[in-house]
Specification:
disordered C terminus; Pantoate--beta-alanine Ligase, Chain: A,domain 2; 4-stranded antiparallel β-sheet; about 475 residues; elongated; alpha+beta; Outer membrane efflux proteins (OEP); 14 helices
């Protein structure tokens, strides 16, 4: 009974089709992927928002691999240096974590580009109907076909996908470099603001004391209204300056916490007394910085690989103009038990679709990437030149302030001694102190500007320039 049903289903007593078809179906089904649910619920969101433990970050930082960022040994017990925070932000940044997920998409595209179209297996059964001739039997027809023209652009499609994958890796490395530099810059700004804030508070306190004395003198008629108003205006400006510095300090600390993936109210401790990095002698020469710029900046190298991907994609689109050719092999048996073997070739007639759209899109994409590359190179060179020009001005300002400060300190010190002996005017002493504090604040701000220009020069040139002394494994 079982033999009869099997023979009926497959159209005859021959077990060849059954032995070939069923194992093939089972083998194809065995390689299929299965679906795994990943709900976006509150528990999953809270788990994603949880920051990684510091010990895990330290281990990752000691073994971190990057073309521009060196691994560091992070202690953290007495605070973090800007370089340590920069590397930690690359490891813990939620934004970079989302960007790294794009790698899976691109790798899937590489796999897909390397897949050839599946062959087609056909089977049909002809059952006689409406004829009582006992000599008629069930007819069979089964065959195998495959499109051979998919081999023409195979290498170009794979090359385009691989170039895109490598370009994405370089673009991600460039994003990591920029994230590290932004975190590093925020840390240096916090250090600079914390060093300038005491000057602002001291200046405000002295002007508040001067304002109190001015109110008493004005009430006694020893001071004019204009002089009292000028003192009040000076105190108000000093208070606004202090408010602005405190607000900027809060902003930079929030930016630092966001880059590190830490809670907004957490206070990231910076290592006290960490020396500011400096540009080495001769490192700011335009000819040296511009030489090989296109090969050092990872975003430009990634754009070059994107252009190569567009070239390969255009070649594949041009080759796809070739008419599609399919080869087929079939074996048949009609109802009168006549057996036949059929060889077939199918060719598309390119009357309407000659892949014009894909070729035009590929040509436009290649031209767009070419023009974008030229624009980015020109912008990078101009940016380096502009930073170098600003660096010369900032250094000149720092030199001028450095020459002024010793004299201002001597004047303020002399007036302080005179005030103790009541041999000078209090207003003159306050003016000298205010000028000294203003120049010290300006000097700290200029040093911060020079440091920011150095970081900007590193980003523009795609190379490490500032010299510091981090602990490296």
């Amino acid at each position: 009974m079982t033999t009869t049903r099997s023979a009926y289903f497959f159209g005859g007593p021959s077990p060849v089709w059954r032995l070939f078809f069923l194992p093939l179906v089972l083998a194809c089904a065995g390689g299929c992927s299965t679906y795994q649910a990943k709900p976006l619920d509150a528990a999953a969101v809270e788990h994603g928002l949880s920051e990684p433990p510091l010990d895990a970050v330290r281990v990752s930082a000691a073994h971190f691999q990057h073309p521009l960022l060196a691994p560091l040994i992070i202690d953290g017990r007495d605070g973090f240096t800007p370089d340590e925070l920069a590397l930690m932000s690359v490891i813990t940044s939620p934004r970079l974590r989302a960007a790294r997920d794009q790698r899976g998409v691109v790798q899937a595209q590489v796999v897909q580009a390397g897949l050839l179209p599946n062959p087609q297996l056909g089977y049909s059964l002809d059952k006689p109907s409406g004829n009582s001739d006992p000599g008629l039997i069930n007819g069979l027809n089964y065959g195998l076909s495959w499109e051979v023209t998919s081999l023409l652009g195979y290498r170009d499609r794979v090359a385009a996908a691989k170039s895109t994958a490598v370009a994405l890796d370089l673009d991600l490395a460039w994003q990591e470099w920029q994230t590290a530099q932004a975190t590093r810059l925020a840390a240096y700004r916090v250090i600079s603001l914390e060093s300038r804030l005491p000057f602002a508070r001291e200046n405000e306190a002295e002007l508040a004391e001067a304002l109190a004395d001015s109110k008493k003198a004005y009430a006694l008629g020893h001071r004019t209204l204009a002089d009292h108003a000028a003192t009040m205006e000076a105190w108000s400006l000093a208070q606004d300056t202090r408010f602005a510095l405190e607000q900027e300090l809060t902003t930079q600390r929030l930016a630092l916490n966001l880059a590190l993936g830490r809670p907004a109210d957490e206070l990231v401790k910076l290592k006290a007394g960490a020396p500011s990095p400096q540009l080495p002698a001769g490192a700011d020469r335009a000819a040296t910085l511009l030489d090989g710029l296109e090969k050092r900046r990872l975003d430009l190298v990634a754009l070059t690989l994107g252009y190569e991907s567009a070239e390969a994609g255009l070649r594949a689109a041009v080759k796809a103009q070739f008419p599609k050719i399919g080869l087929s092999l079939a074996k048949a048996r009609d109802t009168s038990d006549v057996h036949s073997i059929t060889y077939g070739v199918t060719v598309d007639l390119p009357l309407f679709d000659r892949n014009q759209g894909q070729i035009a899109a590929g040509t436009a994409t290649r031209q767009q990437l070419f023009d974008e590359y030229i624009l980015r190179v020109a912008e990078a060179r101009a940016e380096v030149s502009q930073i170098l020009a600003n660096l010369v001005i900032a250094r000149a300002q720092l030199q001028t302030l450095g020459a002024e400060l010793p004299e201002l300190e001597q004047i303020a010190s002399a007036l302080t001694q005179a005030m103790r002996g009541r041999n000078t005017d209090a207003q003159a002493w306050r003016d000298a102190r205010g000028t000294l504090l203003a120049r010290r604040t300006e000097e700290a701000k200029t040093r911060q500007d020079i440091l920011e220009l150095g970081v900007a020069l590193e980003i523009a040139t795609g190379r490490t320039l500032l010299i510091s002394s981090p602990r490296r494994p």
